[in-house]
Amino acid sequence: MGQSFGASYKGKKSCNLSTIACTSFFPSKPLGAYGDGGAIFTSDDDLALKMRMLLNHGQNERYKHKYIGINGRLDAVQAAVLNVKLKHFDGEVALREEIGARYSHLLEDADVITPKIQEGNTSVYAQYSIRVKNREAMVAKLTAKEIPTAVHYPVPLHLQEAFAPLGYKVGDFPISELVATEIMSLPMSPYLTQEQQDFIADAIKGN
Fold it and tell me: Residue 1 pLDDT > 90, yes or no?
């Protein structure tokens, strides 16, 4: 849930919708550290105790290993960075929501499909992604104006080599395949200015 940390669904926060949830603190995430890191969430005390052991070599006390675990502890530098950034996180989430909504308003009359947020939900806009019919041409047009873009998920899950044993083929999930050919992400940051957004929207619309 690294992309949705800070968002909500029917009044409940992301990472609080299931017995166990997790998030990434990769630097580009809405709440990012300066290196790799992440967190696991649970409201079950027994699970929390077991997870703490698994993340610390399976130890229930020093040099006594109850489980086969991993070294998955968050290092002190990343924790210190996150501790400071967490104090500003709610404000950044509000800015992300504002900027995402403004993007959608600016692109209402553009020949693109913008994100739709269902009633009762909020988004932190980890990315602001649009769909376009000729993605390569749009990327080239924006690149010519020095506007960075990204295509985060160009291959649907069912066509990944890791899932080849399941036997899925092109055509089995046509909507996923269509979206994978059209999706692209625009610059997104809680500190994106209105002037920058206007410039990006104008470039998309060909102005």
Answer: no
pTM passes above 0.70: yes
Query: Do the Cβ atoms of 55 and 79 come closer than 8 Å?
Result: no
Residue 183's φ and ψ, nearest 5 degrees, are: -75, 140
Could you count the other beta carbons within 10 Å of the beta carbon of residue 35? 13
User: Mean per-residue pLDDT for 167-181?
Assistant: 97
What is 32-69 written as a DSSP string?
--SSS-EEEEES-HHHHHHHHHHTBTTEEETTEESS--
Domains and CATH numbers, the chain: 8-37+74-204 (3.90.1150.10)
pLDDT at 207: 67
Across all residues in the chain, what is the average pLDDT? 95
Handedness of CA 131, 21, 2, 97 (dihedral sign): positive
Outline where DSSP puts E strands in 99-142: 128-131
Residue located via tokens 């990315």: 127
